[in-house]
Structure formats: structure tokens, C-alpha cells
Specification:
This protein is α/β, with parallel strands linked by helices. The protein folds into 2 domains: 116 residues, Nonspecific Lipid-transfer Protein, Chain A (2-Layer Sandwich); 141 residues, dinb family like domain (Four Helix Bundle (Hemerythrin (Met), subunit A)), CATH 1.20.120.450. It contains 7 helices and 6 strands; from the N terminus they run βαααααββββαβα. It has a 6-stranded mixed sheet. A hairpin with a 4-residue loop joins strand 2 and strand 3. The longest helix has 23 residues. The radius of gyration is 19 Å and the shape is globular.
């Protein structure tokens, strides 16, 4: 459970080292290969009907098929760069579990080979504002990491997250998955700030709380809701601080872990806004 220390406790001043540094693209590629292999190994001995705690509507079979499809999708995107997914055909998933494991293995190898052949700076489609192959390197390393954890939780054999990858995952979750603003919308900052301290990495990430407005051109849905946006470190103290080890913060943000190691200080209202914005399911 979160330890909330309240407004009377001042947060420590930001340090000069409190700047996140991304992993190298070679590191991302290595993690895609390693984490995909660990996911598959965990599911190879798992009951295909076992529930996946982080995705309550899924079984182990669903998780395996989902990640195999994700690997296929992004391998195709990188192979055909800069063409987008307009004519992409989804693979037909086999019904036999062993065949699904084999499909996952082949698609993981395919994505690794495609990225190994790509310059991260090359133009490549993505759903993000970042339209380079580098987006896929990073995003798929975290996709594999979180779904590896899903697989191990389903099998009852969870193992620790790599600390550097988890730290980068906290940054990606706040900046891209929760804080990314699509081109059809606008983020309006409210001038209140949350600093997320990664206590085992000597690093911090700052976000501003505010509102997102816009109309989705795909379905016509109008949005006017609370939101966050990553910002550069501020010169003044933040309104609230969320702190914990990188792996605990990463799994907490992804709703794959509890808040036992998370501490909150500062303005409870600002924290509540922040928490509402990141307490969203991501498959």
C-alpha cells in the first residue's frame, strides 16, 4: 500500500544527476530477443488455460497469441518501412499450443532480424509522433518485458526486471504511453508538477498535470479529461513526489505490481490527479 506522507513533508531538492538516459539501440534489441525468449519459456510449461493476472480477460494462450501477433505486426512494419500498416494482413493463429509457441519463436526472430538490419534513424511508421525505426526498438523492448512478466505471473514463476530497462520503462510509460499527446488533440498544462524519483537509479522524471482536449478523427469521440505531460526538471520544488525502485514503479504503472514499495509526498490533490491519469489498463 502506498505510504502517503502528506503536505507537511518537503521533498528533497532535485539533483544534477536526475536526468534519464535512454538505453542504446543495441540494448533494446538484446532485450527484445531475451525477454521474448523468456516469455516463451515461461508459457511453454504453463497451463494454456491459466489466467493472466495483469490482463484478467486473457489466458496464457491469449497472451501467447497476442504477443506473436505484435511481433508479426512490427516485423512487417520495419521490413516494409516507411510504408504503414494499411494493407497489412494479420497472421492466422494456430489452434495447437505447440504450434503457437513455434509461431511466436519465428516472429520474434523475424523482428530481431528486421531491426538488426535497420538504422534507428530511418523513417518507419508508428502510432506515435516519433516516425522512426528507433521507436520500434524501444517500444518493443518494453512490450516484451511487460508481457514476459505477464507470462511468468500466469505460470507462477515471476522473476525480477532488469533495472536499467525498468527505469527506461518508467520514462516511456510517463512520456509516451500515458503522457503522449496525439496530433489531433491538445494538452493544456495546469502549472502543477509531480516528480517521480527512481530511488535505485539516481534519476527522476517530471510531469505536469493538466487536461487533454480534442476530437478523435477515427471515431468522432470528443475528449476533455485529465492528463499529464512529461516536462524538463523545474527549478522549484514539485507539488508532489512519487518515489520507489525502478522495477516497482514500472510494474505499478503498468498495473502488474502493487504499491508496497511506492512512497508519495506532497499535495494529495495533485497526486490524485496524477494517479487517475496513470491508473489505466494497458494490454
Amino acid at each position: 500500500m502506498i505510504m502517503y506522507l502528506g503536505c507537511g513533508v518537503s521533498a528533497p531538492a532535485p539533483r544534477l544527476s536526475d536526468i534519464m538516459t535512454r538505453l542504446t539501440f543495441d540494448d533494446y534489441l538484446r532485450h527484445i530477443e531475451t525477454e521474448s525468449g523468456r516469455l516463451r519459456a515461461a508459457l511453454a510449461t504453463c497451463d494454456p488455460s491459466a489466467p493472466v493476472p495483469g490482463c484478467p480477460e486473457w489466458t496464457a494462450t491469449d497472451l501467447l497469441g497476442h504477443h506473436a501477433g505484435v511481433l508479426h505486426f512490427w516485423a512487417t512494419i520495419i521490413e516494409q518501412r516507411p510504408i504503414g500498416p494499411e494493407d497489412l494482413v494479420e497472421p492466422e493463429l494456430p489452434t495447437a499450443y505447440d504450434d503457437l509457441l513455434a509461431l511466436h519463436e519465428s516472429q520474434a526472430a523475424r523482428l530481431v532480424a528486421a531491426l538488426d538490419d535497420a538504422d534507428p534513424a530511418e523513417q518507419a511508421w508508428s502510432w506515435s509522433a516519433e516516425q522512426t525505426a528507433g521507436f520500434t526498438f524501444r517500444r518493443q523492448a518494453h512490450e516484451a518485458l511487460i508481457h514476459r512478466l505477464d507470462a511468468e505471473q500466469a505460470a507462477g514463476t515471476p522473476t525480477p526486471l532488469d533495472g536499467a530497462l525498468a527505469a527506461d520503462g518508467v520514462d516511456e510509460a510517463l512520456d509516451v504511453m500515458f503522457g503522449g499527446t496525439p496530433a489531433w488533440g491538445t494538452f493544456t498544462g495546469g502549472g502543477r508538477y509531480v516528480r517521480v524519483d527512481l530511488t535505485d537509479r539516481d534519476a527522476s522524471i517530471w510531469v505536469e498535470t493538466g487536461r487533454f482536449t480534442g476530437t478523435d478523427p477515427d471515431d468522432g469521440t470528443t475528449h476533455d479529461e485529465g492528463d499529464i505531460s512529461k516536462v524538463e526538471p523545474r527549478g522549484a520544488e514539485p507539488d508532489a513526489v512519487v518515489s520507489g525502485p525502478a522495477a516497482d514503479l514500472d510494474t505499478w504503472l503498468w498495473r502488474r505490481g502493487d504499491d508496497a514499495a511506492i512512497t508519495v509526498t506532497g499535495d494529495e490533490t495533485v497526486y490524485a490527479h496524477f494517479r487517475a491519469c496513470v491508473d489505466q489498463p494497458i494490454d
